[in-house]
Amino acid sequence: MSLIINYKNNLSKIKPSNLLFFVDEKFSLSNLKKYFNKSENMSIEDLLKSQNLSKKIISFDLSSKKKIFLLSVKKNINPFQIENLGAEFLRYITDLKKKEFQIYSDAIQFKAKNFVGHFLHGLKLKSYIFEKYKTKKNKVNIEININGKNIPSLKDQIKFRAIEEGTFYTRDLVSEPGNILHPDEYARRLKSLTKTGLKINVYDEKKLKKLGMNTLLGVGQGSIRGSYLVTMEWKGLKDNSKPLAFVGKGVCFDTGGISLKPAKFMEDMTYDMAGSAVVVGLMKSLALRKAKVNAVGVVGLVENMPGGNAQRPGDIVKSYSGKTVEILNTDAEGRLVLADALTYTEEKFKPKFIIDLATLTGAIIVSLGSEYAGLFSNDDNLSKQLIEAGEKVEEKVWRMPLNDNFDKLINSKNADMQNINYVGGAGSTTAAQFLQRFILKKTPWAHLDIAGMAFSKYGGALNSGGATGYGVRLLNKLIEDKYE
């Protein structure tokens, strides 16, 4: 699907058959009369009398060559609701043959800032489809012409486009099959992001062994593919202020290793690298919009396979932090990847905060379904900021507990800790409790368990099913509101 948007002050020569207008919930036409002749205005008023005005979108033909769409806007509408209206409009026009539209932006009388920008942003986000491997592709083209001066500034247009491109890049990465996007290919793709202005460093197995990142390496040692840690730095400020740090789990395919998963739904484990994809998409967005912030993204890239050299239950490994971990279940691998990545990020970059993202536990889906990501944090202020940002873009988080009493569930008799709670229960919390042990210098830290949010079978408000890109807009909003 291709979406073309034209911003111009005068499109009088362009006469598309489809006209979009935004009206209040009563479908008042007082601001629209100047855009139609007298007979057309009378026809619109008559046609409205036969319509169900409880609907958000109403359309009817004024003639054989002209169709009008009236989109109902409630009072005090917020940006996300405007974006959602754009997504709803895209669904509404799916079966329409002619997909060229015109919006008279100066006819919009609502106070919401960047109304047109948010409407088109929602429409664009909803338009994403992944069809790279289909021989017959969706060739639908949608063209929207914006006539008038009530349009986003060039800076805002760049911002919207950057967030869209970052979100789409995340969705692309998550949608790729495991035979294509294995760790070797993933690391290669990340190198190409230097063209956006990001500084990329790739640590291969040789470098990781030298650094002592044995919990990360242990997860990938059963695969014929390499294991990597990749750092992405964006320097948007001239000073050397501490960066904001984002860390992602990049398990490109997760069989469970020796603790093999059931075959049913294992194909979905291509998205076990979604946490890393969010970090990558976010960093790309920051670079594209030249965000006024210093930031670093760190991703651990591995493949968890049951090969002849695979890690075994009962193995004990020494992490980059120096702490030792007893592996009781090789399918609790994401926390092992993040453990080394978190300590390294804290030590090397000394960030203001660290936020990690991972499709970490099935238990969080049991707790929160696909409505909220689980938030675990050692810092009340950072948690509050994430919750507020999530509400604004409808990428919601729900804070879950951390407590020293949970530590006893992951203490090991044979090592400093074990990688699962052998008793059972509190699976998401004990996983987060495990991660917290690798934050050594009390850096403000938050862990987002996005297992229920990264992929949707049925689609959501701003995605059409499959990879959602959850987290890119959330973290962009956090940075935009609190750190720029």
Structure notes:
- The protein is α/β, with parallel strands linked by helices and 484 residues long.
- It has two domains: 2-152, Leucine Aminopeptidase, subunit E, domain 1, CATH 3.40.220.10; 159-482, Zn peptidases (Aminopeptidase).
- Helices cover 32% and strands 21% of the residues.
- It is built from 13 helices and 19 strands.
- It has helices at residues 38-49, 79-92, 115-126, 154-175, 183-191, 205-211, 214-220, 274-288, 334-349, 363-368, 380-393, 427-436, 472-482; strands at residues 2-8, 18-24, 57-61, 67-73, 100-104, 141-147, 199-203, 228-235, 244-254, 294-304, 316-318, 324-326, 353-358, 373-377, 397-399, 417-418, 445-449, 455-456, 466-467.
- It has an eight-stranded mixed beta sheet with strand order 7-8-10-9-13-17-14-15, with helices on both faces.
- Strand 3 (57-61) and strand 4 (67-73) form a beta hairpin.
- Helix 3 runs parallel beside helix 4 (154-175) and helix 7 packs antiparallel against helix 9.
- The longest helix has 22 residues, at 154-175.
Broad shape: elongated
Measured by DSSP, the beta-strand proportion falls in 15-25%
- How many domains? 2
Task: Flag low-confidence runs.
Answer: none
**Strand tally, please?**
19
What is the percent of helical residues? Answer: 25-40%
Structural class: alpha/beta
What would you report as the Rg, rounded to the nearest angstrom? 25 Å
- Biggest pleated sheet: 8 strands, mixed
Query: What is the CA–CA distance across the termini?
Result: 34 Å
CATH architecture group name of the largest domain:
3-Layer(aba) Sandwich
The CATH superfamily of the largest domain turns out to be: Zn peptidases
The number of helical elements comes to 13
Strand order of the largest sheet: 7-8-10-9-13-17-14-15
CATH class of the largest domain: Alpha Beta
What is the fold-level CATH name, i.e. the topology of the largest domain?
Answer: Aminopeptidase
